[in-house]
Predict the 3D structure of the following.
Amino acid sequence: MIDRLRWIPLIFLCLALPAAEALAQAINPQDDAFGFSNPSEMPAWAVPVLRLVSATHVEPTTGIVVSSDGLVLVPEDFASVGDEIIVLDGGTDIIRNGRPARLEQRLPGTGLKALRVKGLDRRGAPLPERLSPDGSVRLAAYPPAERIAEGDPPVRIETSIVIAGETGQPVLARQESLPNVTGALLDSCGNLVGVSIAADVQTMEPSPATRYQWLAALRAILDGLGVTPAPSLCPTGEASETPEPETQPAAPPEAEPATTPEEEAPPEPAEAEAPPEEETPEDIEPEPAEPESQWDIL
């Protein structure tokens, strides 16, 4: 069991969050941020995880909550069996907000391991059905220890990914680079689509050794842990597809105006037949005279 009294000077000496004001800040356990008043700084399922490295020093990282019963993903080299680990849940006060954690399961080949955090009351990270078609992602992570000591807010960097032709796996676009920190990669809806895994000590400088696990690998990890991911914050197709315009129902054909039968014109009076013309003597041709018969001579 963690001796919580040992953690009190650690917050002041090593984590040194923006003075006593930040330490005394009261944050609801459901708030999305650690030590910051703006709840949009970090998603609620991304939590600060601290590992005791000496009597006076702690090493911070970003943990990804994947289930409501306290499973949290951290880098595989972050902690070992027997290490004292604490997760800050909703504030920076170790006594009130610290949750003891233990190693739950190694995840070989992934660069991650799972912690079990007793008393952690957070929903798991939501996963979408597929990556955003436009390739846009955002890194959300707690900064390295020295930046936390300087009062820096969480790291939020917009970037983009492409699908590598050789492997079919997502990779950062050629012109893009991210700092060597452990954190969540989010889509435009706030879903978890990837995890950035810092190599060795976290730094704000990019490193070729930084590893990334993307959506398909995360689904396989959760399946191995027996975890059903939280549903996507934007249903499939809602963010990427443009809704088709509604089709207006066809208007019924307009009835042609009733035609009234045209009044029949009265029949024209028949022309009276002209009376036959009387033949005049001039018009009567004389019939040819029959030749006299010889019998008439007698």
